[in-house]
Amino acid sequence: MPVSGVSYLPILIFLAVAILFPVVSLLLARVVRPSNYSRAKMDPYECGVETQGEPRQRYSIHYYVIAVLFVVFDVETIFLFPWAVKYRALGLFGFVEMLVFLAILVIGYLYAWKKGALEWV
Amino acid sequence: MIRVLPYGMLPLAPILVLALTAASVLLLVSLFRKSGREAGILALVGTLMAGAITIRFLQLGLFLRRVSGALVLDRFALLFSLLFLATAAVTILASISFVIGEGKDLGEYFVLILTSVLGMILMASSENLLVIFLGLEILSLSLYTLAGFTRDREKSVEAALKYFLLGAFSTAFILYGVALLYGATRSIDLQGIVRVFSVPLDAAIDSRAFVGMGLVLVGFAFKVGAVPFHFWIPDVYQGAPTPVAGFMAAGTKTAALAMILRVFLVGFQGPRVVASWVSILTLLAIATMTVGNVVALAQTNIKRMLAYSSVAHAGYLMVGVIVSSDRGSRQGALSAIAYYLAGYIFMNLGAFTVVSLLGRRAAEEEEGYSLYDYSGLARRQPVLAALMTAFMLSLTGIPPMAGFLGKFFLFRAAVDGRFYLLAIVGVLNSVIGACYYLRVVVHMYMKEASTAEPGPTLTVSETLSLAACLFFTLYLGLLPRGFLEMARSLL
Known about the structure:
The complex is a heterodimer.
Chain A lengths: L8 H24 L6 H4 L18 H25 L1 H28 L7
Chain B lengths: L12 H18 L5 H25 L3 E4 L3 E3 L1 H27 L6 H17 L4 H19 L6 H32 L4 H8 L9 H18 L7 H8 L2 H26 L3 H27 L4 H22 L6 H31 L16 H4 L1 H15 L5 H15 L3 H27 L13 H19 L2 H6 L5
Antiparallel strand pairs in B: 1-2
Helix pairs in contact in B: 1-2, 1-4, 2-3, 2-4, 3-4, 3-10, 3-13, 3-18, 4-5, 4-10, 5-6, 5-10, 6-8, 6-9, 8-10, 9-10, 9-12, 10-12, 10-13, 11-12, 11-17, 12-13, 12-16, 12-17, 13-15, 13-16, 13-18, 15-17, 16-17, 16-18
């Protein structure tokens, strides 16, 4: 029976180092550094032109719809590519399967189109 | 060399019919701009067709062991598919007026019902943990959307968000558990997992397998609504549109139970493994029955009461799961569970449909769902009050109804398998259950009405759905043999 756990030891060491490194260096810096606070130092870092108005605005829901449609067709390409590479090996079965897959996507696309997801208002 | 749908693939027909119907309904409402009524009727026709094919396959014994390692269409799968399709058919009938009445007339509602049933069927008909997971996700994503279907109501959106967050969280548990099980057994197939688990009591099993099983158990307990993981149920059922809440209570519970039975009874077998999950499930079952019933006593909102009642029923059903861990009593326990679920689906959907009808007229969200709105209902709406009484009696477990025989078979299986403690706790809890179910009846028949406004008028589809619920609740209770014949030798 393989002794499980030994192969994870480097990850454990890495984890310990990753936690200790920032903690130790921050604590060390706190001890060593001089501390002169001023008002300007407390400001959040900012550059460029002063902002106009409220930055948290509501985005049009259309961005999300378009993004979802994009993801759908992005994923479609991921499936199409290996099929195209192995086209001969998969033969007619693969061809029909891919047609079924595309048909389902086209139905979804038609639905989105007819519901006005592609019209920008 | 056409191998597209070989004859051996014929058992896939119900699934394919359902998928095609879902796609057609989607095209119907978008491309042809038909109303919710037409969409609902097409969805109903597709569901009934799939159901008829499933019944025929069950009668003919047309099963398929394995479809490319992904699907197992055995008697268990077909019987549960039938239960899901029945749930969908009744829900569609009960929802047509609701969908039109919401003012937006969105036929997409029915597409989501169909896809969620598709997910349920996948969950019940696979021995591959990834395919089961896929089915669970198809079901869950459809249900998250359905819970928030009335999106201009704050409560509905809140329910959808809560359901989504907790659902996704519990799904992560299941997925991590599956990953650990794969690491321990080198298989995501239940047959492969059980080969590793089938070792004598003193042999070593990779400890990651137990962690994986525990995580899967937690995820499943979330989905079925077992007690330490039940907090989402009342909030979601209360906020979701009432027909959707009924669909979730009946359909999701059945699907989660099918998944639990398949995974635990096929995959997690072997002397050491069974002992480990039976002890945990026993605690969960006792807690679920007791907490569900006791907390339901304190509810004055009828949707919350039904939600806690569904938690309690999940507890009774888990007794069945535990009893079926014993090989000698497995067949009896499994057919008892199937029978219980069949009865539960109809009485529960019936109760939710009545609640939905009475709540529909209410302008404010809370109004119409309080227990006090049912005061004096017998005088205003004698038919609805009588129907509600029938469903409440069945949920309590009073003889001519299916609820009685369901509990009887379940607890008899527990006694036969010598799980006396569970049987005693179950029977005691049924007594507690009687208090809050019968309180509704008391309010309807023995209290003065708070308002004099006439109740809702029933449409044809609602009448049909209520009639179907009442018919099957009585039919299963009076003539159980036909169904028990179909439910023999599962798994």
